[in-house]
Amino acid sequence: MMIPRLKVALALSALTAAAALGIAFASEWYGGLVPCALCLIERWPYRIAIALGLVGLVLPRALARIALVLLALSILAGAAAASVHVGVEQQWWPSPLPECAAPKFATGSIADRLASMPAKPSKPCDEPIYLIPGLPVSMAAMNLIFALGFAGGIATFLWTTRRSAP
């Protein structure tokens, strides 16, 4: 029995999204890198892509194709989040998330200041993380490049198979 190309594309897309998430988690758990709030948001489109890819595997062809379109849109949303993150790292604009800003202490006692500190340390979003020593491309920029290529690959597949057999 031949497996339809659409099902292969959905499975490969889910695996690709899982690999991207796996690299992010491995760099955190084993590499000791601390993700910022924007990094954590950039992971959600990959989770959604995994779910859409897996659900698409059990859907009829027309709905599976829609699932693949939604998967590509999810990855494009991840590229948008990554582009915001790259802009914050490059100081082009401030982060849209309040978690990315350091707390501002204008007045109050030391006890008040300590009470307002977060429970666990966070990494500022405007401080780039470089995964590969000597390569001046931050993880956010790598994610942007990867997400654009990933979504572009899916779009190419969808375009070239729009009227073909399964």
Automatic annotation (TrEMBL):
Top-rank taxon of the source lineage equals Bacteria
- Where does the sequence pass through the membrane? 44-60, 67-88, 140-160
Any one GO CC term of the record: membrane
Q: Which GO terms describe its molecular function?
A: protein-disulfide reductase activity
The question of whether RNA-binding is a record keyword is answered with no
What is an annotated GO biological process for this record, any one?
Answer: protein folding
Keyword Cytoplasm listed: no
Which compartments is it annotated to reside in?
A: Membrane
Signal sequence, renumbered to the chain: none
Which terms are listed as keywords in the entry?
Membrane, Transmembrane, Transmembrane helix
How does this protein lie in the membrane?
Multi-pass membrane protein
Q: What is its main location?
A: membrane
Cited Gene3D superfamilies: DsbB-like
Protein name, per record: Disulfide bond formation protein B
Per the UniProt record, the lineage of the source organism begins with: Bacteria, Pseudomonadati, Pseudomonadota, Alphaproteobacteria, Acetobacterales
